[in-house]
Amino acid sequence: MQIIRFKLRQSRLTIIIAIAFMFVSAVNFEQGRVIDSQRALIRLLSGDSNELAMRKIHDSMQRR
What we know:
64 residues, rod-shaped
């Protein structure tokens, strides 16, 4: 009887560990997607910032 209880506990623990591993893997995958999206947004904003700076320089040179 004790052997059966031990095996059931061991099986439950294995299932819990497997579920936790899948959850951590899903979070890791989603973090990768978020980081890629943020990287793309930073590049886009950097390009906009450079374009704005060039326009300001161009405008200031035309005013002279």
